[in-house]
Each structure stands twice: as structure tokens, then as C-alpha cells.
Amino acid sequence: MTHAPFIEIDGRAPTVEAIAPTLAGYGHFTAMQVRGGRVRGLAFHLERLDGATRELFGTGLDGERVLEYVRHALAGAGREDAAVRINVFQPGDAPGEPVAVLVAVRPPAGVEPGLKRLKSVPYQRPAAHLKHVGGFGQGYFGRRVATAGYDEALLVGPGGEIAEGSVTNIGFIDGETVVWPSAVPYLRGITLQVLEVALEQAGVRQDSRPLRLADIPSCDGAFIANSRGTAIVSEIDGVPLPTTAKLLTQVGELYDSAPWDTI
Fold first, then answer.
1. Longest Cα pair distance anywhere in the chain, in angstroms?
2. pTM over 0.85
3. Which of 13, 87, 120, 248 is surrounded by the fewest CB atoms within 10 Å?
């Protein structure tokens, strides 16, 4: 069943005039899972929103303003547990003009259980360091691979260099090391950043280096991660991957135990 989101713009019910500028398809967003009025990696979310607002619109975005709108929308939706998306856009078109903040609240969501099968596609997102709107390529390839029976599209560049999933980051296991693909461009997702901190605190080695599709058979495992959580990958392009590495389980446990921040 599809649930219509509860939406507010700058803490108010949206009018047609207020929501019309979003049709231009220029802006950015962050997505989070809220439980009990708390979220993992809150500081990373606020840094993402402020940095992207400065780059796209030439002005900053105060974190407390964002949190006030999120609290108001959660209260209006009557939810402490929710999937929350925060979109930032500019009602006008002159650099430096004030931005508007749209908050959409939906029922909470998590990773579907089970191992994940990935299909590579020759695509890299434009301005991929930003979580920007208008991701047609991601949606196009995500739907194509889903129709073919896969769970996620794996975006690769020239020479088969692995970048990211269509809506996920991907990490690989090499012995006792978590390896993050270093392809440029790609998005440093919030869950990736939360995991980096958790892995460092647990004393787990991490590396960032180029990885190509040809390297997959030599990997000891892989996982994907986004705001819904983490999941183990069982195959990429029909090439099976080990799924029983201790470090794969540890990655999931570390994320599940990561601290929650009050909104």
C-alpha cells in the first residue's frame, strides 16, 4: 500500500505557489530513518544540507532551522518513527536568495531481509558528490535491473571501475579490511560515514582504492548501505560472492549499535 507523505514547507502546509518551484528539478536533499525522535548521523545530515546549499545556492542553511522544521513535521504527522526526506530548493532564481526547506514524513522503512543480487550498469551520476534531485539515470537503471530480477544497480565508470549503487554505497571485504571504492565521482552517504566512524572505533582496518568488476572474484564479500541500513551482497553480474565472512556480520552489528542523535 502506498502512503501519501505528510509534507510541510518551512513549517507550513504547502500551497500550490510554494511547491511549484520544486518542479524545476534543481535542488538537493537528505533522507533519514527516525526512531523515537532520533536519527543516526545527525551531524552528517546537517553538514550535507549546509554544504550543498552553499554550493548550489550561494547561501548557508542553519541546522537548527532544519531541526525545527523536522520536529514540527513529525508532530504534525503524529509520528516519532518515520522515514523523513528533507529537500532544499530556492523559490527565486537569483544567487544568494533565501532557500525553502520541504520536509516529507512517511512511515518508517527498513532493509528488506535477505541477500542482495546486483547488476552493473555503465553510468555515473553527474555532480555525484551531491545528493541532488533529478536522478533520472539512477531511477532508469534501478528499474531496469529490478525488472531483470536484481535488487540494486551498481554504477560503474570507464574500465568497469565501481563507484556506488543507484541508491546505496557499496563496501568490499579483503581479508580483515573493509575496502571502499575510490571512484570519482560518488556520494559519501550518511550510513557510509557512520560506518567509517564505527569501524575505526572498533579497530577495523579500512582502505579506499580503485576497484573494478574484474576484481570481484577475488573479494571476500561485499555489502551495500543506505539510510535503511546494511545488507550482504551474494552476487554481482552472476559472479557469486562469499557471504559468511565474520567481518560482513560485524559491519551489520556495528551499524545496528551506532548511536542515535536526538532531533
1. 55
2. yes
3. 13
